[in-house]
Write a structure and sequence with these properties.
By secondary structure, the protein is mainly α. It is 40% helix and 4% strand. It contains nine helices and four strands, in the order βαβαααβαβαααα. It has a two-stranded parallel ribbon with strand order 1-2. The chain has a two-stranded antiparallel ribbon with strand order 3-4. α2 packs antiparallel against α3, α2 packs antiparallel against α4 and α8 packs antiparallel against α9. The two termini are 28 Å apart.
């Protein structure tokens, strides 16, 4: 199943909702107001980290300085009237009924490489469902990359779990405790209390989707299988701005990207905890292949 659907133009709430509830990840291409919002965010980030290039600033700044600049930039973006104005315009251009919608505060997410410069709002959230930590039965998340994405630097989805429950800590997790802990914690540091409930079972990441969507890039996910017709259509529209391989060459490239050091303990845990004989056998075979 192709999980990603490219949209040009607007969809009303009913059309958009039907696609989302069918499991689609919607990519709205070249939305003028969203492009202006991303450009505005880039201006704020570039000014804050000047003379360092934003994408490499963490390698040139000490941790405390990097986190201080990141926190002040995030706060400015969140409170700036231009951010809200452009985001509202983007929703309107996409087809959202503004007068009958509620939205949360805007968040400029900054995720540094590794853990040395992580802290506060630059910390990873980990595998979670937003509905675990709120009283909302449903919500739509909107994401837009400010800088180029790669398969190693993007958001990851696990569609195999969208239609099944996952054991998690929501019964004992408290939003009030998280907020209290966050207020008492230095903004450059990550609160000790988890920002969201955590899964209590091993998550099978073999069917993950790493979305690589950049302005002007092809709306395809890493490891997505393309038919000959779709490949020709994408190549015609996007030229050489994406890479597609076949046969042994493709398999060799995918094997090169396998994170053995992470998957090995994960498969061992799955063999110990998995109750399904079929899944336990699958984990054993994967472990043997490593």
């Amino acid at each position: 199943m192709g999980w990603i659907k490219k949209i040009r133009g607007a969809l009303d709430d009913q059309q958009r909702g039907a696609l989302i509830y069918s499991g689609k990840l919607l990519v709205f291409k070249q939305v003028p107001a969203m492009q202006r919002l991303c450009a505005f965010a880039d201006e704020l980030i570039t000014a804050a980290f000047n003379p360092h290039a934003p994408e490499k600033a963490q390698f040139e700044l000490e941790r405390d300085e990097f986190l201080s600049l990141a926190a002040s930039t995030q706060s400015r973006f969140k409170k700036h009237p231009e951010s809200r104005k452009l985001f509202r315009s983007a929703l309107d251009e996409i087809g959202v009924d503004i007068e009958h919608s509620y939205w949360d505060r805007l968040l400029l997410r900054i995720l540094p490489h590794g853990d040395t410069h992580a802290g506060g709002l630059t910390s990873r959230a980990g595998i979670h469902r937003d509905t675990w930590g709120s009283n909302l039965y449903q919500q739509t998340n909107w994401w837009a990359p400010i800088y180029a994405l790669t398969p190693e630097r993007t958001i990851v989805f696990y569609p195999d779990y969208w239609s099944q429950p996952v054991e998690n800590t929501s019964a004992s997790w408290s939003y009030d405790k998280y907020v209290a802990d966050r207020r008492q914690t230095d903004p450059r540091l990550a609160p000790s209390y988890p920002p969201a409930p955590q899964p209590q079972q091993v998550i099978d990441t073999t069917a993950e989707i790493r979305v690589v969507i950049d302005p002007g890039e092809a709306p395809i996910a890493e490891k997505e299988l393309l038919t000959e017709e779709r490949f020709r259509s994408l190549r015609e529209e996007f030229g050489e701005r994406f890479t597609a391989k076949m046969g042994a060459e493709a398999i060799k490239e995918l094997l090169r990207r396998v994170r053995v050091e992470e998957l090995s303990p994960e498969m061992r845990d799955k063999m110990k905890t998995e109750t399904s004989v079929q899944k336990k056998t699958k984990a054993a075979k994967r472990l043997k292949g490593m």
